[in-house]
Amino acid sequence: MAPKPELVRLAAVPATDGRDRFLATIDRAGTLPGRGAYLCLDTHRDAPNGECATQASKRGGLQRAFRRAVEVPSDLTGSLESENL
Predict the structure, then answer these.
(1) Pairing mode, if any, of strands 36-42 and 22-26?
(2) CA distance 29 to 19
(3) Distance from first CA to last CA of the chain, Å, rounded?
(4) Which of 11, 38, 57, 81 makes an SS bond possible with 27, Cβ 3.0 to 4.6 Å?
């Protein structure tokens, strides 16, 4: 487990499109209600590490942490291909 300053908190928030779904979003202040999930921080982007976020999403770690199905926006996972260029 990494020290808290090296992690970024995600929270599950209801989608605003009227559909019954939840989206994972960055909670920098740590004040959004509900369960949170912590991912490795990419200090160059001040966002979750793309590889860490992708693995957590693919393996169902975020869904387990939130105890519900969540959609992870592509801007959180990032494009690993573009980071490797």
Answers:
(1) unpaired
(2) 26
(3) 29
(4) 11
Return the exposure string of 53-62: e unless at least 16 CB atoms fall within 10 Å of the residue's CB, then b: bbebbeeeeb
Residues 6 or more apart whose Cβ sits within 8 Å of residue 78: 45, 47, 50, 53, 54
Residue with the two structure tokens 């808290």: 4
Q: Which residue has the higher pLDDT, 78 or 34?
A: 34
- Is 74 in contact with 50 (CB distance < 8 Å)? no
pLDDT of residue 82: 39
Residue the block writes with tokens 């860490």: 52
